[in-house]
């Protein structure tokens, strides 16, 4: 029934699955009918606990059938749902929970790790109610999700997504899938999930797998071991985990044999690592770009990445999305020129929780200001050049961090690299490169020469600091602020 409120489309998927197994975890397989019934009991438990459309719920759940049913049940009653990611720093967790009227729903695996909260509901108590059909009660203009950013530049911001926007999303609707996702769908037969199913990325790719007829496989994120143990065909992966997976697969001289799709999430993937991953793992990488505020913006499928120019991009936007590159005055720039990326997507957020100033700065006239820098090539592929905050002004000339990183990362002596600006009494700012070497004989002068030849003298790192590892934020992104400190 297409006119039912969200998550009616997901409940219909479970009903259609019937006796087909849709969720596997150690020692247990759950069918679509069983998961639907579990969702009905938990949504009844939430309603019995007084949760009404528009009420706030924070979900501290893992990767079990009950966790997935809890996410579906929270949306069934029309709540404002906030997912709590495992491993949040205490300061970030306190900020996420500071929403006044919010109740926390936790499963047995997460409850003990939470601070004291005014109202705690357990999944175990909610599922104890009678069987009843889950009936969506959401109102389109209510907030469906508060999706928090990584907090890499301070406290996480809570992006607000309405039920209407959530219903307009692509994940559970095969008729809305762009070409890259239609190529992805057949590879989602056994899709590995970990962390929390209340995660935006984990939930959306998980529901896409269900819509494609696949099964979600709960596992610890110990790649490639989990892929091998569970015969997984696909999963979501950060750049840091991809790098580790490539190293492990190269040491074994073979990648996981069942793997057919890796969706890289969290931060841009440099072309050197992408080329190495394709060489070691085969044509399994789906390389894309998205934000908390927008969902997926662009994607490139393995079939496209035989072209090195595509590998250097983050893919092309589907027809449903609009990408525009603008200068500092907000005017569109000619194709090929670098500017700030502005986007429109069907499921984008509408603002930030409790932050009208930031909402006005980012959301305007139906567009989302990404604060990322990029350019569109003649074929419509998007090439990122870093964050607006990652601009380094050297001798009054603008330098971008990402192109410098790509030149350095392409050399075989460099395993990882992150570039940041630092004050300079001579040039105003200077480029500082932090490098994890792949070999003992790191030649700094050679690396500087490569940057000079490719990008010019002002882009050359004034300093190259050797590290054992690049520090990461809790979301798995390079932590430039930690490097500057």
From TrEMBL:
UniProt signal peptide: none
CDD domains: AFD_class_I
Keyword Ligase: yes
Coiled coil stretches, renumbered: none
InterPro entries reported for this sequence: AMP-bd_C, AMP-bd_C_sf, AMP-binding_CS, AMP-dep_synth/lig_dom, ANL_N_sf, ATP-dep_AMP-bd_enzyme
An example molecular function term from Gene Ontology annotations: acid-thiol ligase activity
Domain AMP-binding enzyme C-terminal: 404-477
Domain of life: Bacteria
UniProt keywords, alphabetically: Ligase
The UniProt record lists the keyword 4Fe-4S: no
Start-end of Basic and acidic residues biased regions: 317-329
Protein's name in the database: Acyl-CoA synthetase (AMP-forming)/AMP-acid ligase II
Species of the source: Catenuloplanes indicus
